Every structure is written in C-alpha cells, then in structure tokens.
Automatic annotation (TrEMBL):
<feature type="compositionally biased region" description="Basic and acidic residues">
    <location>
        <begin position="218"/>
        <end position="239"/>
    </location>
</feature>
<dbReference type="InterPro" id="IPR036291">
    <property type="entry name" value="NAD(P)-bd_dom_sf"/>
</dbReference>
<feature type="region of interest" description="Disordered">
    <location>
        <begin position="209"/>
        <end position="245"/>
    </location>
</feature>
<dbReference type="GO" id="GO:0009247">
    <property type="term" value="P:glycolipid biosynthetic process"/>
</dbReference>
<dbReference type="GO" id="GO:0005886">
    <property type="term" value="C:plasma membrane"/>
</dbReference>
<feature type="domain" description="Saccharopine dehydrogenase NADP binding">
    <location>
        <begin position="10"/>
        <end position="142"/>
    </location>
</feature>
<dbReference type="Pfam" id="PF03435">
    <property type="entry name" value="Sacchrp_dh_NADP"/>
</dbReference>
<dbReference type="InterPro" id="IPR005097">
    <property type="entry name" value="Sacchrp_dh_NADP-bd"/>
</dbReference>
<protein>
    <submittedName>
        <fullName>Saccharopine dehydrogenase</fullName>
    </submittedName>
</protein>
<dbReference type="InterPro" id="IPR051276">
    <property type="entry name" value="Saccharopine_DH-like_oxidrdct"/>
</dbReference>
Length: 423
C-alpha cells in the first residue's frame, strides 16, 4: 500500500447500481464498523447519500457510511480514492468500457481490487497491460468474484486440494455441472455480454481471446491439450446423462485454466476442465440437450451479427441498472456440482464437490461472494503465493473464501465420490 494507514478498508464502487447496492447492504449487515471500515462510491453524490440513509436505517450498527465521489472516466479522481483504500470492490460495468482506469489507479497505488467481470476480452487486456506492474506494486487485482467465476474456480480448487491431500495426485479432469437454480439476469450483466460480442466483432484480440481456451494464461503459455468449451449435446461419461453447452463456460473454464497456470501447474499441464448443463437421461435428456444447445447457438449467432445485436440490445435487453427486487434476490438459488477424475498410487479415483446457496446467483449470492472476497483481501485472510498481480479467486484468495462463504450459508463441500458410470 502507498498509504500505510488507509482511510477505508473497502470502497464499494458503483454502490448505487443494483449489484453495488446489494453488496453494500450485505457488508453492512454482515460486519460492523469496528470489523470493516466501509465506504460507498460513485459519481452521483445525491444517490449515494440516499443509499447511506437507507443503509443506516436498516442497520443498528452503522450510524454513518462515508461517501467517496469520483468518475469511472476520470483517472485522477480514481487515483485519489485508491490511494486511501485497502480494497476497491467494483460493480461498475461494462468493464470493457468503464473498468480500465480503476484497475490502473489501483495498480499505481498498490491497492487491492475485486470485481464481477465476465468479460474475458477485458481480463486478457488487464493481464497483458497490468500483471507485471501489479506484481511490482503489490496490488492484487482479482477478477470474476461473483457467479462468474467463484463457484467454478473455487470449486475446482476444493476438488484438487482434496485429491492431492487424499490420493497424492491431482485430478486430470474436472467437470463442472450447473445442476440447478433459479434467478434473474440484470441489465448490467446483459450490457457486459453485449460488450463482449461488440468487442469480438471489431477487435481481433478479442476474437482470438474467445477462440483460444488458454487465452488468459500467462504470456508464452497460451496453448495446451484442452480443446475448450463443449458446443454440442453430448452424453456425459461420468454421470451417464446428456449435457448441453453452458453459457458461462467461455468465462469460467478460462479462469480455471489461469488459476492452474498461475499456481505453477499443480494440477498438471495436461489438466482439462469442462463446464456443462446436465439435461437428463434417455431420449428426453437428448432432446433437451439439443434444444438448449440450439437455443444458445441461435442467440450467439444473432449476437454476432451487427444489426441483430443492436436490435437485441436496444429492444430486448433490460436497461443497465435494472435488476431483481430484494425478495426476488433472496428467493433464488443455485447448485453446482463438480466431478474430478485422477489416478493415484492405488489406481483411479473420483472426487465430488458441491457449491451453492439459496439466493439468486446473479445478485443475492453474488453480493456475498464479492463482499467476502473484498473482506478476505482487506483483512489479509488469503491463502495465496502472490502479493500482487492480475489474479483469479482461486489463485489470489483461495480456500479462506470458501470458509467465509460457508459461514454465511453456502454449501462448499468436497469428498470422495461413489462409483460413477465411467468406472
């Protein structure tokens, strides 16, 4: 840190947006001012003051929450805030357009940072531009600390840690199954999705990032044996049921591969990971997998055509700032299962993990994942070999985040699996 005694432990940046508000509400419910020095930030002082009034009205512990005002497009205002903060916790997207100045400010100040991005093209940009500088300054830049990509990344870390401890060897393959859930998609999330396709249409580097399964790996290590995300219906050998492509796989799989590379390949250079949506067995499972794959393919094709993309963003997507009510966010849920297969001294083994909670994955759950990521960074509650760099949840924070999430109602369990269909 540039400032040995920063004013704020955590600044929730973009706190008047839907995701930012949920995160600020969660942190003021979970912690008191003696545990975590919190501030809320953004560009509209009036809206921030209204948020503070609501936060303090809802909480007996918080008589006030400091406000910091700046502009995502004004680097100097961001530098002033970053210099006085331990952790910048940002929900301001699309990150491709609005995120880079804040990352740069945090890298310059040596301030830790976490966000919700699923924009792999932008993550690739920050890796290439800022990783070495962040290592030098001691800024831990931890991307994708929400539903993208904590369950997949931390779940894989749980599987691999258990495998290495129990069997003396990592899993060569981890499959991530989106087993169930309910929730909503915000205008901000879809705006980020639109930015990703916009970048792919105009930027050759963005297109290469989406083509290459190893595009988030360190320089000179962006190749390997993993072919990348599943694109068609497929019968899964481990679970004996049909699966469809996952819309989150292009993000989550690349994040997991970056974790393996950053950590020095503890899971091996031959490690493969795949994220899919299980659809059931028999003809019905096959038909459902085909429908899901066809729908996702049609949407992807439409988003790849400029006029169709513009029409969808204008007429079909909700506006940024729109999102679920508190009741809707608390009524959702998600469950992700992971299966890892490896070979130890006594032969093949299978490890199974579950990761989930009873809140909307994109908001209620994401607010907790992002908030606890910020708390881990602010308190130094991390299990990581890195003091700085452009990192992932697994490589930059590690298993302490899983423990914190268990304390607030998440399932994050791992154990030896029973016999699988592939055995």
């Amino acid at each position: 840190m540039t400032d040995a005694d920063p004013t704020h432990d955590v600044v929730v940046w973009g706190a008047t947006g839907v995701a930012g508000r949920f995160t600020a509400e969660y942190l003021t419910e979970r912690y008191d001012p003696a545990e975590l020095s919190l501030a809320v930030g953004g560009r509209n002082r009036g809206k921030l003051d209204d948020l503070v009034a609501d936060l303090t009205r809802r909480s007996d512990a918080w008589n006030d929450v400091p406000v910091v005002v700046g502009d995502a497009t004004d680097p100097e205002s961001l530098r002033d805030i970053a210099r006085n903060t331990r952790v910048m916790c940002t929900t301001v997207g699309p990150y491709t357009r609005l995120g880079t100045p804040l990352v740069e400010a945090c890298v310059e100040a040596g301030t830790d940072y976490c966000d919700l991005t699923g924009e792999v093209n932008w993550v690739r940009e920050t890796v290439d531009r800022f990783h070495e500088a962040a290592v030098e300054s001691g800024a831990r830049i931890v991307h994708s600390c929400g539903f993208d990509s904590v369950p997949a990344d931390l779940g894989t870390l749980l599987v691999q840690s258990f495998a290495r401890e129990s069997y003396g060897a990592p899993c060569e393959t981890v499959r991530i199954y989106l087993d169930g859930g309910s929730g909503s998609v915000s205008g901000g999330t879809l705006a980020s999705f639109g930015e990703l396709f916009e970048a792919a249409a105009t930027d050759p580097l963005a297109r290469e990032t989406l083509r290459n399964p190893y595009s988030l790996a360190p320089r000179d290590e962006r190749s390997g044996v993993d072919p990348g995300e599943q694109r068609r219906p497929r019968r899964d050998a481990l679970r004996g049921e049909w699966t469809a492509p996952s819309p989150m796989a292009p993000v989550n799989e690349r994040v997991v591969r970056r974790s393996n590379a950053l950590l020095g390949y503890p899971w091996g250079r031959e490690f493969r990971c795949t994220e899919v949506v299980p659809t059931g067995t028999g003809l019905r499972g096959a038909a459902t997998a085909s429908l899901v794959a066809g729908g996702l393919g049609a949407f992807t094709a439409a988003m790849s055509v400029g006029p169709l993309r513009s029409a969808l963003r204008r007429y079909a997507f909700p506006d940024p700032g729109e999102g679920p009510t508190r009741e809707e966010a608390e009524a959702g849920s998600f469950l992700i299962r992971l299966l890892g297969r490896g070979t130890g001294a006594d032969g093949p083994f299978t490890v199974e993990a579950e990761f989930g909670t009873d809140r909307d994955p994109g908001y209620g759950a994401t607010a907790r994942m992002l908030g606890e990521s910020a708390a881990c960074l602010a308190r130094g509650d991390v299990d990581s070999p890195f003091d700085g760099g452009v990192l992932t949840p697994a490589s930059g924070i590690g298993l302490p985040l899983a423990e914190r999430l268990r304390e607030v109602g998440f399932t994050a369990s791992v154990d030896e699996a029973g016999p699988t269909v592939g055995e």
